[in-house]
Write a structure and sequence with these properties.
This protein is an alpha/beta fold. It is built from 21 helices and nine strands.
Length: 468
């Protein structure tokens, strides 16, 4: 049988096992195209120099044997899956089963459902349309002008407020309304469960004086939205770029927030589907099983100690533990309700962490690496810390003054991160360029020392040269 025939049989088996998922369109593509998809996030996306840097980084890792891309799958209705044409038949049979597991998770999970309901289920078509609009802007306004706006928008792509709706209205016009309006939208299935957790409640409204309206009426963490809505001289085409980047960030957020769960769920189901696929010839099954071992192994390149988490391995181990202990029905409930934060904290226990030999460590500047702790709480935080707030520092708009100068504040106590001052200054210059007024950021450096950074539009012009 060929791949299409095996795919049809795997779909039928998945239905018998109770998997429920959006249709999946599979396509075989060459290696260079697969690499571009992995770097850009989608097959056709807005062009920017930063993607070229990511491409070189991914290419270097691939040549060094640190990574291999078997497939890229895009959640949607239908889902789109790209498989490398250089994969063996056995590898692509495994990839097909893996993607079916992803598709089941995406349709089942509340966070994916919420973000897809806002950003839509046709990301490839939407992204291609945005790229076309950007090409039109390049013709009308020139590369330097368009690239400067993209510099700012992509530098802030992680700075959204996922608890707010994608299509969000402006702040209320009257001060009294702004003082009493809750910054949170009507709850959906994901938010209802979040607010039911102990200690969670709606934030108290920020008092506003009875005089002139203060903007923002509460600390605003959705920087892309605030700049698109309130930048004093932003042109329509510049605003469209900010909103396009923001919409893509909403689409990709659950991919980031559920990575361990999602990859583990897909790995569990590809293993189970292969195990129960009595139509697979023994030799093909053994070859697929070897590929499975490569996917879920804890250590890369035959290393005996791993300093990074393989999400396939960790997620697969946790799902197997849950299903063995509580059954598939409990696993399906968890897959619907949790993201990685709840999944790790609620289901990675002391016993399993010990079996997986998990620990937190410290890498010193002189190259020495040492184990700090095997305490379960510290292991949880070491895994989840880089994922918090989309992996970005917690920056909020604190105040827009009457002269439209902008004050930002880094909530370092909340995210536990200091900033790289060189990088922070560059991003602040990007922001000042599109804000077209002075911008101030209150933060701390990597030592925890208080720092205040300032940028003006003139600074942004002087530092607008692109990296080589």
């Amino acid at each position: 049988m060929n791949l299409d025939a095996y795919t049809a049989k795997l779909h039928a088996l998945a239905a018998r096992l109770g998997l429920d998922y959006y249709p999946v369109d599979f396509e075989l593509v060459p290696q260079n195209f697969m690499l571009e998809i992995a770097v850009y996030g989608v097959p056709v996306r807005m062009h920017h120099w930063s993607f070229g840097l990511r491409y070189m980084h991914q290419l270097l890792h691939q040549h060094m044997g640190h990574s291999r891309i078997f497939e890229v799958m895009f959640p949607g209705d239908p889902c789109r899956a790209y498989m490398m044409d250089r994969n063996s038949l056995a590898e692509n049979v495994l990839v097909t089963a893996h993607v079916i597991g992803h598709a089941d998770f995406v349709k089942r999970n509340a966070l994916f459902s919420r973000c897809m309901s806002m950003a839509g289920g046709h990301i490839l078509e939407q992204s291609a349309a945005r790229a076309h609009h950007l090409d039109d802007a390049l013709l009308r306004h020139g590369q330097p002008a368009v690239e400067a706006v993209l510099d700012a928008a992509l530098a802030l792509e992680a700075h959204i407020d996922i608890h707010q709706p994608l299509y969000r209205p402006p702040y209320p016009d009257r001060p009294a309304d702004a003082a009493t309006a809750s910054p949170t939208p009507a709850p959906d299935r994901f938010r209802q469960r979040y607010h039911a957790l102990p200690g969670e409640s709606a934030p108290a409204p920020t008092p506003v004086s009875s005089g002139k309206r203060q903007l923002p009426p509460h600390p605003e963490q959705d920087l892309l939205w605030f700049i698109a809505r309130y930048a004093p001289e932003l042109k329509d085409w510049e605003r469209d770029i900010f909103l396009a980047v923001r919409e893509e960030s909403y689409y990709f957020f659950p991919v980031h927030a559920c990575q361990i769960m999602n990859e583990g769920w897909a790995s569990y189901w590809h293993a189970r589907l292969l195990r129960e696929a009595d139509f697979l010839p023994p030799q093909l099954y053994l070859q697929a099983l070897r590929a499975h071992s490569d996917v879920v192994r804890p250590h890369g390149n035959e290393q005996q100690l791993a300093l990074t988490i393989n999400p396939y391995h960790l997620g697969f181990a946790i799902w197997e533990d849950i299903i063995e202990r509580d059954g598939i029905a409990a696993a399906r409930r968890i897959s619907a309700e949790e993201d990685d934060f709840g999944f790790i904290r609620n289901h990675l226990g002391v016993k399993l962490a010990g079996q997986l030999d998990l620990f937190s460590y410290q890498a010193r500047a002189d190259g020495e690496t040492r184990v700090i702790s095997r305490d379960l709480h510290e292991v949880h935080e070491a895994i989840l810390g880089p994922k918090y707030n989309y992996g970005a520092p917690c920056i909020v708009v604190e105040r827009m003054h009457d002269d439209f100068s902008l004050v930002l504040r880094h909530d370092h106590a909340r995210d536990g991160r200091g900033l790289d001052m060189v990088q922070a200054e560059q991003v602040l210059n990007y922001v000042a360029h599109v804000w077209r007024r002075p911008v101030t950021l209150h933060t701390v450096d990597f030592r925890g020392s208080a720092r205040t950074l300032r940028a003006t539009p003139s600074d942004a012009v002087r530092t607008s040269a692109r990296p080589a």
